[in-house]
Amino acid sequence: IEPNVGVITVPDDRIVALAKIDNPKKIIPTTIEIVDIAGLVKGASRGEGLGNKFLANIRETDAIIHVLRCFENDNITHVDGTIDPVRDKEIIDTELQLKDLETVESRIAKVQKQAATGDKNAKRMFDILSRYKAALEQGKSARTVELDKEDRKAACDLHLLTDKPVLYVCNVDEKSAVSGNAHVEAVREAIREENAGMLIVAAATEADIAELETFEERQMFLEEAGLEESGVNRLIRAAYGLLNLETYFTTGVDETRAWTYVKGTKAPQAAGIIHTDFERGFIRAEVIKYDDYVALGSEKACREAGKIAIEGKEYVVQDGDIMHFLFNV
Asked: Is the model's pTM score more than 0.85?
């Protein structure tokens, strides 16, 4: 009934490579929070089951990972008696869309009168809401509505459930873990126009991997199954990408640390992730590219080779940058 929250380390070989160079006292990887919410039932939008509570839990998240059963097993019953991941997906979609339609219609009622008086912002909002309403009434999710940057900004406080980025995870049997099966293909076809990601994972296999104690045993198990890496790692990375996140690093003898930022962030705001004072008093950033740091083997060698760039307030941080911030408060 209550959502389960798991805070998971984001797998990244780069932090391991940096730690080998600097041999720090501490290694701090970046993390992602995954909330396991109980399944919705048909009628959840009208409060069936624990509908409203679960929908509120979903509203608090930044993205949705939708796990779909894509395997046959007579020993594991399905609530609807048959295996049909596309139907399962559509039940959830419908419930979320109905809830969004309710949100949109109640907001339309508020802004319609203001728009009629010539209020520019209200008119803009009314137009956005009307586009959402038309899509939702056709059984399409809000994320299929294309908005420009300004309109998207104006609409973000609606917190529509079907506007969140979504990743479909096809849970398959062991023999389908590498290349999928007919159920997976049906899902692929169903989400073609949806602007969503898809991943194939065999949860039973993942449970077996999790029980193995050493890295070597896990690697051997993966090789035997024909997999390059665990589904859990692929899932975490896909979720990280889904949220439009990237990583920069700080490294030295005290600690090697990964920091999460939203793609497109400029240097002062990236500095602010460490401490607000860093952003407030930002002077400049020293940036070393990850490949240079690993190739040359130390900050000192990078400095001597002229591989440290001095960047100002307009620098857009790149994934993998190793950064030092100079600030004065």
From this structure: no
